[in-house]
Structure formats: structure tokens, C-alpha cells
Specification:
By secondary structure, the protein is α+β, with helices and mostly antiparallel strands. The protein has 4 domains: about 100 residues, no CATH class; about 90 residues, PAS domain (Beta-Lactamase); about 45 residues; about 140 residues, Heat Shock Protein 90. Strand 3 and strand 4 form a beta hairpin.
């Protein structure tokens, strides 16, 4: 509305100047010189007023943009003016100014929010420009490096010369490890760099993780879970032995002279003694088997690797599974892409891993009429070879998914709990990994990545 009124007034002023110019020319031609001169003066005055109005408007808009550029939102234009077009223009500029101020306040609040998040996370973060200036570093990084404030990468020379060289030569998308040693501790640091652009400037976003801390936490958690399982298994074995021993000891009474009084024993007590000793023997053997399985887990030999046609190995294991589970109707699908795919592995150890996974999958589908076991060997998007064992069984519960690789943890009746932990150890010795994905009631997938 303001621009429309201003536009109309501008047209009227131009038309008046045009009419005055034509009238002045007419009066001068008809020798009415006084009227012609008066119109010429009028043209000069109208031109001056027009230029003054336009300049005033231009200066007002220029002031407005200067204030916005300098983030000065205190500028206000008077809305109580006599000229309607100026009143509406001032009102519009004030509204735009208020809107920009509101957006600026929202952005500042959001920036403070993100900065607070960066301050709280346990990962070091810093942004570096092309000249080596550190534009931002969060408190965790300063604590990790024991140096503050961090303003330039050259300050890292005061911490460690090699650390400075690593950061200075760190390129986009590079990842590097470095062990930082100081008078307090050793930190195994992992650096990752990502290029970003802000306000047209090329920056390098560097994240720093303390692997030593994470490994300590994972190691402690693993020990806690292992001790919990060991305690459970040992207590299950020892408790019956203790109970039976206590019951049997009550059969045999010793008199004041220290002699055993055999006449107090009856035939039932002797039979119970024999049965109790037999139970103690069986429990002891179970405990010995448990210890042996633990020793086999620890004494796993290094892999004797060779190139293996994976399709040939999987075909043999497929036949073996069909023979062992002839009564169970489980459809076994085998897919190898490409068919001549070769793996560099210890055939006996990996066969042991796969047989364990196949058996677990088939056992989980015992109550399922349309059980399907899918075995796939291929190359993933990262160029790494993998074997996937997937079934459509009941799946693994969320509270058990983190426990299944813990030695001696089992959900099966009569299971040893050593199979999956042994499989994980074998994959670790092969320089690979084993991961599990499960959707309860739908499917479970184990992926061996080499």
C-alpha cells in the first residue's frame, strides 16, 4: 500500500511538471513572458520537491538496511506524519524491522541451545579455518587436551609437537589415531575431519573421541556381564551339591568318643547316600565340563587361512543341516553373488561358526511350519565380503540382544552358552566381526563381515 501511494504521488508530480513545462512553452511562444517565467519557476520548485522527496525516501531505506546489517533493531520510523504515503511506508518498515528482530532472537536462542548441547557431549569438537584459527572448541576438547582457551592450532605445539603436526596436516574426510601422553594419563584419541562451509568460508570440523575411556567402559561392562553369567552357572551347580552334602551328613552321627555309630544307619539311608554321591559326581562332572568349555574358549588357535570357494563350503553345510534335521521342515535358501566368490579364512573354524548359527536358527523354528533359513554370501557397498544367516523365527528379545555374545549366557534348555561367544572370538581372530539384527516375531539375521 505504501509503495502504491508513493507511486501515485510520483506520477502526479511528474504530470504536473510536464503540464507546467508545456504551459510555460505555450506562454513564451505567445509572448506572455511573465506567465511563462512563473511556470518555469514552478517547474524548478516542483523538481526540487520531487528530488527532496525521493532522496528522503532513499535515505530512510538506506538507514533501515544499515541498521539491519549492524543488527540494530532499535531504529523506529515515525508513523504520525501528515503525508499518508510516508506514514504507510514507515509503518511497513517498522513491521519488517520487528519481524527480522523476532527471527534474529529465535536464531540466537537456537544457537545457544546447540552450543549448550555441544558443551555437554563427551566428544571433543572444534572448527578450524584455512589460516589455522580455531573458531570454536567445546569444553570437553579443552579438558581432553588440558589446554584453554584454544584459539589457534599452533597452540597445540605447547601440548605435543606430533599432535600439532597431525592436526595441521589433517585433511577433509581423514581419520587418524593418536596416543596423547601427559603427566596425568594416556589417552588414545581418534580424530575425524569433515569439511563444512559457513558464510562462504571453507572450514574443517574436527571431532575427537577418547577411545581409552570408551574401551574402559565397554571392558567393565563386559566383565560385569561375564561375572554375572559365571556366578549364575557356578551357583546352579554348587547349590545342589551343598544341599545334598548337608542332608547326607545328618545320617552319620559321631558319639562322644569320636566313633561313628553304624547301628543308627538303616537301609534307606545307605541307598540315599549312594544316590546322593552319584548326584554329587554328576554335578562335579558338569562343573568340570563347564571349566573345560571356558578353557577351550580361551585356548582358541590362530586361524590357518586359505582361499576358499564359499559356495562349495555352504553347499556342504547345507547338505549336513538337511541330514541332521531331516524331520524338521525348514526351507534352506542359498544365495552366493558372484557364484565364484572366494573368502580368505580358516575353513574349519568358519564352518564351526556357520554350523552353530544354522543349528540355532533351525532350533528356533521348531514350532513353525513355514520356517525359512536364508544364507547369503556377497560383497557389501564398502567392498567387504560378508555371509548373512537369516531366519523367520520368533526373534531375540530386546533385553537379550546385548547378552547373547556373553560367554555361557544361554536361553536354551541344556545349552552351554559358548557357541555365539566362540563364534565372535573366531571372527575377531579373522579380523572381522559378527553382528545381529532381530525383529521379535518376524526375523533374526546374523552377519559375518570379513
Amino acid at each position: 500500500m505504501a509503495s502504491r501511494n508513493f507511486y501515485f504521488q510520483l506520477i502526479i508530480r511528474v504530470l504536473l511538471i510536464t503540464v507546467s513545462a508545456l504551459g510555460s512553452a505555450y506562454f513564451i511562444v505567445t509572448q506572455w513572458y511573465s506567465l511563462g517565467a512563473a511556470l518555469l519557476l514552478s517547474i524548478g520548485f516542483q523538481t526540487f520537491v520531487l528530488i527532496t522527496t525521493i532522496n528522503k525516501t532513499n535515505r530512510k531505506i538506506a538507514y533501515f538496511f544499515d541498521a539491519i546489517r549492524n543488527e540494530d533493531f532499535t531504529l523506529r520510523f515515525p508513523e504520525k506524519v501528515s503525508i499518508q504515503s510516508f506514514k504507510e511506508l514507515n509503518s511497513s518498515l517498522n513491521r519488517v524491522n520487528q519481524l527480522i528482530q523476532d527471527v534474529q532472537l529465535q536464531l540466537q536462542a537456537r544457537e545457544r541451545y546447540y552450543q549448550e548441547i555441544l558443551k555437554q557431549i563427551d566428544i571433543g569438537i572444534m572448527t578450524i579455518d584455512e589460516k589455522g584459527h580455531i573458531l570454536f572448541s567445546n569444553p570437553f576438547l579443552e579438558k581432553l587436551l588440558n589446554f584453554r582457551p584454544l584459539l589457534h592450532v599452533k597452540q597445540l605445539q605447547q601440548i605435543d609437537q606430533k599432535l600439532f603436526e597431525l592436526i595441521e596436516n589433517l585433511g577433509p574426510f581423514e581419520q587418524k589415531y593418536y596416543q596423547l601422553v601427559n603427566e596425568r594419563e594416556k589417552n588414545q584419541l581418534f580424530f575425524k575431519a569433515v569439511p563444512i562451509k559457513m558464510e562462504g568460508k571453507a572450514l574443517l570440523l574436527v571431532t575427537v573421541q577418547d577411545l581409552h575411556k570408551e574401551l574402559d567402559e565397554k571392558e567393565t561392562d563386559s566383565w560385569v556381564r561375564l561375572i554375572r553369567v559365571l556366578t549364575h552357572e557356578i551357583m546352579n551347580t554348587i547349590t545342589p551339591i551343598t544341599s545334598i552334602s548337608e542332608s547326607l551328613s545328618n545320617y552319620y552321627k559321631i558319639d562322644e568318643t569320636g566313633e561313628l555309630r553304624w547301628e543308627n544307619l538303616n537301609e534307606d539311608q545307605i541307598k540315599n547316600t549312594v544316590k546322593g554321591l552319584n548326584v554329587i559326581r554328576i554335578q562335579g562332572e558338569d562343573l568340570m565340563d563347564f571349566v573345560k568349555s571356558y578353557r577351550s574358549f580361551l585356548d582358541l588357535p590362530s586361524p590357518d587361512k586359505s582361499l576358499v570357494q564359499i559356495k562349495s563350503l555352504l553347499d556342504r553345510l547345507k547338505v549336513l543341516m538337511r541330514m541332521e534335521n531331516s524331520k524338521q521342515k525348514v526351507l534352506i535358501n542359498l544365495l552366493v553373488e558372484p557364484e565364484d566368490l572366494e573368502f580368505f579364512l580358516d575353513e574349519k573354524q568358519i564352518a564351526q561358526v556357520l554350523i552353530n548359527l544354522f543349528k540355532n536358527a533351525i532350533q528356533s523354528m521348531q514350532a513353525k511350519e513355514d520356517g525359512i533359513l536364508t544364507i547369503k554370501a556377497a560383497i557389501n557397498a564398502q567392498g567387504r565380503k560378508y555371509i548373512e544367516v537369516k531366519d523367520n523365527g520368533p526373534g531375540i528379545q530386546a533385553d537379550q540382544i546385548d547378552e547373547i555374545f556373553v560367554p555361557f549366557f544361554t536361553t536354551k534348555q541344556g545349552g552351554t552358552g559358548i557357541g555365539l561367544s566362540l563364534s565372535k572370538q573366531i571372527m575377531h581372530l579373522h579380523g572381522g566381526s559378527i553382528r545381529v539384527h532381530s525383529t521379535p516375531g518376524k526375523e533374526t539375521s546374523f552377519i559375518l563381515t570379513f
